[in-house]
Design brief:
The protein has helices at about 1-40, 45-55, 65-75, 80-95, 100-110, 115-130, 135-150, 155-165, 175-185, 190-200, 205-225. By secondary structure, the chain is an all-alpha fold.
């Protein structure tokens, strides 16, 4: 019984000790949301995007897709590329607005024109699925490549898959391995598994060539980022 009492005491101590930590985290998120909202209401596009993000994630405030879309729109209409791309996502997924692929394409294109890798990734998806636009695998691969060159890991992995299957680009296992390797270097677990599958079909010479190409791609991206 004595041991049981000690165990219960320890359990209760840790249970109650952890509560304030969670409460503090929630309070901090709420403070960040309220501070961002003040600046957003004053017309700051960057903070309008942040408020939209808070509502979309349910961080610091109850999740509300309608409010999220409203604030993303405010930012988008001030030419904030993040707001534009996220508004496109909301239209694509019918979150807070009615699904409208053409409207989504409009906002993705506006954001992509401002060099948003997020928007370029989404344009790659839209062209690959034919949502709001005629399906075009070549156009899709082109957008994924543009985002990949901006170091977007998801686009790099997808571009690798496209090279592996020859979808929208010539089939090339060396290029497939290289782009997937670049994505995997950022900790993308799906990329690491994909590489193992590629290597089952490749010669040692092809793997060596892919490693060299991956290094060249990584160096090119790093230089572009440093400009």
């Amino acid at each position: 019984m004595k041991n049981l009492s000690i165990c219960l005491s320890i359990f209760l101590y840790f249970a109650f000790a952890s509560c304030p930590v969670r409460g503090q985290a929630a309070d901090e998120a709420e403070k960040e949301f309220l501070a961002a909202k003040v600046k957003a209401e004053a017309g700051d596009a960057a903070f309008q995007f942040q408020v939209g993000n808070f509502y979309a994630r349910g961080a610091g405030v109850a999740k509300n897709d309608t409010e999220a879309a409203k604030w993303f729109r405010k930012a988008a209409e001030q030419d904030d590329p993040r707001g534009q791309s996220m508004l496109g996502v909301m239209y694509t997924n019918a979150r807070g607005v009615e699904r409208d692929y053409k409207e989504a394409m409009k906002w993705f294109n506006k954001a992509a024109a401002q060099n948003s890798a997020h928007a370029k990734y989404n344009l790659g998806h839209m062209y690959s699925t034919g949502k709001g636009v005629t399906r075009d695998d070549t156009e899709s691969a082109g957008w994924y490549r543009k985002a990949a060159e901006q170091n977007d890991a998801g686009s790099q992995r997808i571009l690798g898959s496209l090279y592996a299957t020859g979808k929208g680009v010539p089939k090339d296992l060396v290029a497939a391995h290289a782009w997937t390797k670049v994505a995997g270097a950022k900790g993308d677990e799906a990329s690491k598994k994909q590489i193992a599958k590629f290597e089952e079909q490749m010669t040692p010479e092809q793997i060596a060539a892919a490693m060299k190409l991956a290094a060249e791609i990584a160096e090119r991206i790093a230089k572009a980022k440093g400009k």
